[in-house]
Amino acid sequence: MFVRLSIAVAALSLLGSAALAQNAKLTDPQIAHIAYTAGVIDINAAKQAETKASNKEVKAFAKDMVRDHEAVNEQALDLVKKLKVTPEDNDTSKALSKQASDKLAELAKLKGAAYDKAYIDNEVAYHKTVNTALETQLIPSASNPELKGLLQTGLKIFQGHQQHAEHVAASLK
Amino acid sequence: MSSGRHLAILVLLALGAMAVPAHAATIQIVMENLVVSPAEVSAKVGDTIEWVNKDILAHTATARNGDFDVTLAPKQTATLVLKKAGTVDYYCRYHPNMKAVLKIAP
């Protein structure tokens, strides 16, 4: 399981950087799309966890993810509206969505403690990947200062989520 | 009742009203980017704590000992009058990494 997970994470980062390498520089509409997609992915995973998880802490974590990512995405939508930017689908968004739906299907097959562990481990890995992408690619590429600012706020929030997920993961062991 | 007496009562009332805020302070604590600042605050019974949530997320100030559980909507401020002395650890239920402490003197 863990090996498979690591491979998935590696594949995700490779896909991400390959797509990013092709477009020498991501445009703001693409960045907005990637950031929004990354949020939707985590909301979908959390909604699955709200119904499937058995551990109390895991359930609470999933609820927190829905609340926070919906709040951040709402801000993102308000911002793109204000800036009159239309988020633009791109290879990175597509790769993220594909990987996420595979993961969701994989998690759907698990039950009980095995599900809880797989979900929370994936949350740790996923937030790590997203945070790295934000830090090294999305934030540096963003041109609009308000978009850059929202991504920076997002990074702080998601770093908190990563720590929270790590804490919950450790408590399951 | 003479008008002199009226005045005396008014003065007493005014002094009484002034006496309360002179003792009780309002202490502001900011929550921003998932950090509580200052993380440690010394206060007295009767003081008001004013939590300012500058984040776009909801937070809570939840006492570990159950003394209070204040919910803060995004970009909102909430207050709490301290009623009991003691050292109270509190945290955000939604973001358990956010931890702080109130040291309340009698």
Automatic annotation (TrEMBL), chain A:
Keyword presence, Signal: yes
Keyword set includes Zinc-finger: no
Signal peptide extent: 1-21
Protein name: DUF4142 domain-containing protein
Ranges of residues in domain DUF4142: 27-167
InterPro entries the record matches: DUF4142 (IPR025419), Ferritin-like (IPR012347)
Keywords: Signal
TrEMBL record, chain B:
Record's signal peptide: 1-24
Superkingdom of the organism of origin: Bacteria
Record key words, sorted: Signal
Stretches that traverse the bilayer: none
All residue ranges annotated as the EfeO-type cupredoxin-like domain in the record: 7-102
Stored SUPFAM superfamilies: Cupredoxins
InterPro entries: Amicyanin (IPR035668), Cupredoxin (IPR008972), EfeO_Cupredoxin (IPR028096), ET_Amicyanin (IPR052721)
Annotated protein name in UniProt: Amicyanin
